[in-house]
């Protein structure tokens, strides 16, 4: 950090700042200042001061709705989280073309080794709450792509974090395992009413030349089932994005 931040002469402040970073890393994107303070056992004034400092130093970022925080560029480089995305014009053009041909939301999610970030949300048919998808990997289609790609999903998203968002959310390990097995077998992910009761989505993976999962094209719609009628279009867009995101 810069000279105006924390130094080695302030061990207590450094420990508190690290505690804040640890809380945000474990709680996931969208964690609020109040939650950070409670989990880090810090008074509100100290919590807000440290959050503002860490945002200023790019270790944290404020969520677009200003209601919570997520790991920033500098912290992501240390933790393996998905970094703040910077998409090329060509990549954004591919997404615009797909949006122009469909009547569902078209979004791009990018992956780090153990986390995801909503990189480009459809401005006409936006995700209702991107932070939920980033925080609750077990519930969303994109999160399931990431978990299905892990040797052991429990190391990335422990069973204690299987939070029920709706009556349909898979909150038992064996339920989630069945969904992940299905995702791995067919090569794409879907969910119906597990993040929001009235929204379904599917996710088509974007992989690098080495086969690593780097992103996903996500289609969302207020339907009783995923928009699988547009799966081929999503896969085509994902294929076009592969050389642009590698």
Automatic annotation (TrEMBL):
Protein name stated in the entry: Helix-turn-helix domain-containing protein
Pfam family, one: HTH_IclR
Organism: Quadrisphaera setariae
InterPro entries reported for this sequence: GAF-like_dom_sf, HTH_MetabolicPath_Reg, Tscrpt_reg_IclR_C, Tscrpt_reg_IclR_N, WH-like_DNA-bd_sf, WH_DNA-bd_sf
Molecular functions (GO terms): DNA binding; DNA-binding transcription factor activity
Residue ranges constituting the IclR-ED domain according to the UniProt record: 67-246
UniProt keyword terms in alphabetical order: DNA-binding, Transcription, Transcription regulation
UniProt key word Transcription: yes
Keyword Transcription regulation carried by entry: yes
A GO BP annotation: negative regulation of DNA-templated transcription
Matching Gene3D superfamilies: 3.30.450.40, Winged helix-like DNA-binding domain superfamily/Winged helix DNA-binding domain
């Amino acid at each position: 950090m810069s000279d105006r931040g924390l130094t080695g002469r302030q061990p207590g402040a450094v420990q508190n700042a690290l505690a804040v970073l640890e809380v945000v890393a474990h709680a996931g994107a969208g964690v609020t200042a109040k939650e950070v303070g409670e989990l880090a056992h810090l008074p509100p004034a100290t919590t807000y001061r440290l959050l503002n400092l860490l945002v200023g130093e790019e270790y944290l970022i404020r969520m677009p709705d200003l209601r919570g925080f997520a790991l920033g560029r500098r912290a992501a480089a240390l933790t393996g989280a998905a970094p703040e995305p910077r998409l090329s014009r060509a990549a954004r053009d591919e997404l615009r073309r797909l949006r122009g041909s469909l009547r569902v939301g078209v979004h791009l999610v990018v992956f780090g080794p153990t986390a995801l970030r909503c990189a480009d949300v459809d401005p006409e048919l936006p995700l209702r709450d991107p932070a939920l998808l980033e925080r609750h990997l077990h519930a969303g289609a994109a999160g399931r792509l990431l978990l299905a790609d892990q040797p052991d999903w429990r190391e990335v998203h422990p069973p204690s974090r299987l939070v029920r968002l709706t009556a349909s959310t898979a909150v038992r390990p064996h339920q989630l395992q069945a969904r992940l097995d299905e995702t791995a077998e067919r090569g794409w992910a879907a969910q119906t009413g597990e993040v929001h009761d009235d929204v379904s989505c599917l996710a088509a993976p974007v992989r690098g030349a080495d086969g690593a999962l780097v992103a996903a094209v996500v289609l969302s719609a207020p339907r009783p089932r995923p928009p699988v009628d547009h799966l081929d279009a999503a896969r085509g867009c994902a294929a076009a994005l592969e050389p642009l995101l590698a």
